[in-house]
Amino acid sequence: MGEIRMPSLGADMESGRLAEWLVAPGDRIARGDVIAVVETQKGAIEIEAFEGGTVGRLEVAEGQTVPVGAPILSLEEPAAAAAAAAPPPSGAPAPTPEPAPAPAPERVSQPTAAPPAPEGVPQPAVPSPAPAAVEAAPPSRAAERVRASPAARRLAQRFGMDLAALTGSGPEDAVVSADVRRAREAERQAPTPERRAPEAGRARGLDLAEMRKAIAAAMARSKREIPHFYVATQVDLKAAADWLAETNAARPPDERMLMGALFLKATAKALLEHSVFNGTFEDGSARPGDGVHIGTAVAIRGGGLIAPAIHDCDRLSLDALMARMRDLVARVRGGGLRSSELTDPTVTVSSLGDRGVETLFGIIYPPQVALIGFGRVTETVLAVEGAPVVRPAVSISLAADHRVADGHRGGLFLRTLASLLQEPQSL
Amino acid sequence: MSLSEEQIRSVLVEELGRIAPEVELDTIDPDGDLRDEMDIDSMDHLNLMIALHQRLGIAIPEIDYPKLLTLNDAIRYLVARS
Amino acid sequence: MSERPKAEETTLEAGEDFTASRPHLSRAHLLDLLHQMLRIRRFEDRCAELYTYEKIRGFLHLYDGEEAVAAGAMRALGPDDWVVATYREHGHALARGVPMPEIMAEMFGKAEGSSRGRGGSMHIFDRAHNFLGGNAIVGGGLPLAVGIGLAKRMRGEPGLAACFFGEGAAAEGTFHESLNLAALWKLPVLFVCENNQYAMGTALRYSESETAIAKKAESYRVPAAAVDGMDVVAVEAAARSAAHAIRAGGGPQFLEAATYRFRAHSMFDAQLYRDKAEVEQWRAKDPIARLRGWLEESGALHAQDLEEIDSRIEAEVAEAVAFAEAGTWEPVEDLTRFVHSAAARRR
Amino acid sequence: MSGMRETTYRECLREAIREALQRDPRVFLMGEDVGHYGGCYAVSKGLLAEFGEERIRDTPLSEAGFTGAGIGAAIAGMRPIVEIMTVNFSFLALDQIVNNAATLLHMSGGAFNVPLVIRMATGAGRQLAAQHSHSMEGWYAHIPGLKVLTPATLEDARGMLWTALEDPDPVLIFEHVLLYNRSGTLSPEAGPVEIVKAAVRREGSDVTLLAYGGSLFKALDAAEELAMAAISAEVVDLRVLRPLDTATIAASVAKTRRAVVVDEGWRSGGISAEISTRLMEEVFWELDAPIERVCGVEVPVPYPAHLEQASLPQVPEIVAAAKRTLGR
Fold first, then answer.
1. What CATH fold (topology level) applies to the domain A218-426?
2. Which of A221, C316, C341, D178 could make a disulfide contact with D125, Cβ separation 3.0–4.6 Å?
3. Is D132 a catalytic residue?
4. Cβ neighbours of A163 (radius 10 Å)
5. Rounded to the nearest 5°, which phi and psi values hold at A16?
6. Which domain holds residue D136?
7. Phi and psi at residue A396, to the nearest 5°
8. Poorest-pLDDT segment among A122-126, C202-206, D85-89
9. Which among C113, C40, C115 is positioned nearest to C74, based on CA atoms?
10. Of residues B23, B42, B59, nearest to A353 (C-beta)
């Protein structure tokens, strides 16, 4: 028997309130299924199962707050065991020689609502999958079986939509591009959210006051512990802006891209080259990131800020990246973030956007070691081949932890980033 | 297809409301820059353009974006293009 | 690109009138014929050697033994005339005046070759000398010569098209189609059949019901003559006579030159199809030895003349090899450059 | 439009030849029965009297000989138009076309180009059986060094020849036998046309029908029928089989997301296979359905009318294929 515990979704998360169960006892769940919504200081977050099985007991009632690490759900029959050979005969050794783990997690500081599993009953150890394996997991076979045209697949990826959820109208009931567009239109035509009074100051699932507290704690810790250094440079964006304008001119609005997608992709690629800035620093030692997962700062209407991760930015196409950004912004503002998005950013990118300031000096989000800030894109006088010309330009800054790197390395990183932005077609 | 100014205004107001639900639309200056009036960022703006395209059938090229900066400008532009 | 050494100018500027109906057998003229044949022989010898060093690849068909045909016939051609040859065409190109360094560079596949290395041994082309190749399809060149003759006639231009081919071509349809067309339209075409007795390894008697090729030509009403292809003077005389008739507006003419190749068909040929004795028999008729002996007997050739010719040729061949060695490879980016004229003319 | 006049495909071809003979003294027409007989398909009727035997040159039945002579004459300064009676006979000249016309420029390192035009009839539909009815233009489209044109409209019949004669390299023009009698109106100003681009003959949004030569009109008829079923078909006339105008073809299919290739030639190894593969290479991610092909049945074209028709692409098959791409 296995169990699922209240996950840690960030260094600053201590506990979570279980807002809603999305599964019930007896349900079969697979790895990656969303099982519950947990409200945290950062908002409502969907919790994924990292192992499969049949839901046994819900250990926590809706509305209850439990600390990180507390069991919230028990599994009756782990998928791994079920998938193995026939159950061993009575009296035979358990499939794995390890003794059963202590049923109650050490970190639990108060009893949970439900009793722990009875002691003394041998339980097969359920290997918990490594996070990397989760990330690399291939799409489920069901998803592969979706019959969809190439055009529909591309469009669905661009829109961040799930093909399996669509009904096909094409040859042999294949999902075709028109089906994707129709579905997206229907999604958009969903009833307008209730107009909220401005004084409510609270988007669905978010407690802005709580969030402000969390930001305060994290930033105070950062300034206290991390010896920051800052470097910044101005980057000519003519090539990127021209390319973007040309690309977008040929596309309908729903397929257009924002400059932000180029910034993210260029940053991801530059981080591959300067990996020292992509990772964490804890307990006196630096640990490289297990991928380039960029925490993307998204402002919340009415105040507040959240930086969920877009995973493997370096491996996503610009279109895919754009779809993730769009999806992320929609979910931050409408609620519904997933747990893995908050747990593992390896670096943060913050952009104050087209209405913002020229240069941004960020504060690193611990235990990360760097934050890259993009200012506003402005028309700037630059010297090009010895003559002054007016060009779109952006000021890019790096705030980094001096314990892992120095200013020289920071400068090299910015130079790489700047040169990547000169060849937008290769991003 | 030709749409009345009223139809266009109502679609525009509805979509703006979807993007910034907390803003009282009757309180904003119809000749002020919408981005300031409603605290709209580039993603919000893109979503607005997508919505206008899908609901009104008007694809607004990027180079025309400066012609839709205020509520009144946007209505004028859309009426002319519908 | 290395600078090309100055080409040996030979036949075309020998100071004689190519349109004369008979050769003028001065000592200088005969020494010149000897020089030309020796030049071809030494060139081919060097090619055989370079092939073993892998400097030259592909099919290499050598002209040893047949030198008298090209050297003699070419004396009847002027600058307005065109030449269409076969894949055994080094001798024709040399006798026509195509610079030896460019021919050698072509063998090496270098960009400085006469066909920029695109053709190799079987496809020497030179626009400046109206030399339309090296055609590796037996009988493939005959219709082209007919077309050139047709163009000349329609344009009212002087000159003729000389077409060299082997006796194997007589079995191809194009041979008959071309003779018929040229005769029907009275075109200025000189057909020169180099009958070296073997179509690759098949002797003429195994492939033709009528082995006298000249007779076939006559059946198309093309005036034909058979000539000893191992006698350069006889070839020149026959070619002059035929060319003269063509220039006079009499339509095509046909020459069949009996000859023999001393070396194998190509470099990879065990020569199972012919006796060593037969080869020796023909070697005894070597056109070079024959002319030399004749010149020596008549006291027209001195040891020092021969030395002088030899050293000139040696230097020319050495220079050609050096030029080819120093040549460059066409960049791979230019791979498709000569498929369409627009791209070919670029840069 | 005012001033339009009634004419036929055959007359357009003849006018084009006449114009070329008048404009350029280097041009001459050569082939079997082009002179005294007036052309097997009567294209050159009357031209002998007008231009004389030198320039309207009857040849013996020697396809290799006179095609090769055309190549030689082109190299030596003429602009020959060689007429080969039908594509099946061109195989007798295949060696000259492929081994000489297409290769000389390359083999000579750019020294000798071949400004030759070869015209020939192609296609089935006149009960001429298996040695006079095949569509082999796709074979020629395989050969680098050649250009392959397939005029379908009166404008192209009138306008492609001169542009082809101006080309420095060999150009093959394929005239579908069923088009010669096709009549229509043409502007008196109609003249030379470009020979590099495909043309959209009918705009549509749901599926692209790709056709050329004699099949173009079947595709247009199919589009008409599809319109009754509320399917908007775009019809692209390929016009040039080599070099294929991939950009125009791909742009149309990227728009409609579906394609039906119509080709009278056989399916196996045919030009339709090439087009289909180009679409895979260029617009795979734009496709909403597998590419459909409507081709000649893999049999030598038979003599009896009912079998001959059964062996050729027909409108109902094109309509059905188009509907399949829409899941209907």
1. Chloramphenicol Acetyltransferase (3.30.559)
2. D178
3. yes
4. 21
5. -145, 150
6. 5-186
7. -110, 130
8. A122-126
9. C40
10. B42
Given pLDDT bands bounded at 50, 70 and 90, which one contains residue A255? confident
Domain with C261, as residue range(s), is: 27-346
**How much is the pLDDT for D291?**
97
Candidates D11, D32, D83, D132; catalytic one: D132
What are phi and psi for residue A91, nearest 5 degrees? 85, -15
D117 with D146, same domain?
A: yes
Are C173 and C139 a contacting pair, CB within 8 Å? Answer: yes
- On whether both D174 and D208 belong to a single domain, the answer is no
Among A28-32, C152-156, D68-72, D84-88, which is the least confidently predicted range?
A28-32
Residues 6+ positions from D284 with CB-CB distance below 8 Å: A150
A183: Cβ–Cβ under 8 A, 6 or more apart, which residues? A161, A165, A166
Residues of chain C neighbouring D64 (CB-CB closer than 8 A): 143, 173-174, 177
- Compute the average pLDDT of residues A267-283: 91
Angle at CA of residue C277, ends C271 and C279, nearest 5°: 55
Could you tell me the maximum CA-CA distance found in chain C, to the nearest angstrom?
59
Q: What's the gap in Å between the CA of A159 and the closest CA on chain D?
A: 15
- Please check whether residue C183 touches D, CB under 8 A: no
Q: pTM above the 0.80 mark?
A: no
Say if residue B51's pLDDT is above 80: yes
SS3 C286: coil
CA D142, CA C101: separation in Å to the nearest integer?
36
Q: Is D63 a catalytic residue?
A: yes
What's the pLDDT score for residue A141?
A: 41
* Residue D194 belongs to some domain of the structure: no
Query: How is residue C302 annotated by DSSP?
Result: -
The domain tally of chain C equals 1
- Specify if D192 maps to a domain: no
* A146 against C1, higher pLDDT: A146
Question: What tens digit of pLDDT does each residue of C99-150 get?
Answer: 999 999 999 999 999 999 999 999 999 999 999 989 999 999 999 999 999 9
pLDDT of residue A12: 67
**D11, D63, D137, D274: which is the annotated catalytic residue?**
D63
**Which runs of consecutive H residues, i.e. helices, occur in A235-317?**
238-249, 259-273
Q: Which amino acid, residue A189?
A: Q
Residue B22 lies in domain: 5-81
CATH number of the domain bearing residue B44: 1.10.1200.10
Name residue A22's amino acid: L
Residue D206: the pLDDT is 96
Q: What is the CATH number of the domain that holds D128?
A: 3.40.50.970
The residue count of chain C comes to: 347
D294-306: pLDDT as tens digits: 999 999 999 999 9
* Helix or strand holding residue D264 (H, E): strand D259-266
Q: What is the complex's ipTM, to 2 decimals?
A: 0.65
Count how many domains chain D has.
2
Closest Cα partner for C14 from C37, C3, C1, C30?
C30
| Residue C191 belongs to a domain | yes
> Most C CBs within 10 Å: which of D106, D146, D166, D196, as the mutation test of the C interface?
D106
In angstroms and rounded to an integer, the radius of gyration of the C-alpha atoms of chain D is: 20
CA distance A351 to A32: 31
CATH number at residue D304: 3.40.50.920
8 Å CB contact of C178 and D28: no
Cis peptide before A367 (omega within 30 of 0): yes
D30 lies in some domain? yes
A186-190, A420-424, C189-193: the lowest-pLDDT one: A186-190
C260: tokens are: 């023999």
| Residue A352 pLDDT > 80 | no
- Going from the C-alpha of C166 to that of each of A112, C141, C201, C233, C242, the distances in angstroms are 103, 11, 13, 20, 18
Strand, helix or coil for residue C99: coil
- Nearest-Cα distance to chain A for D288, in Å, is 5
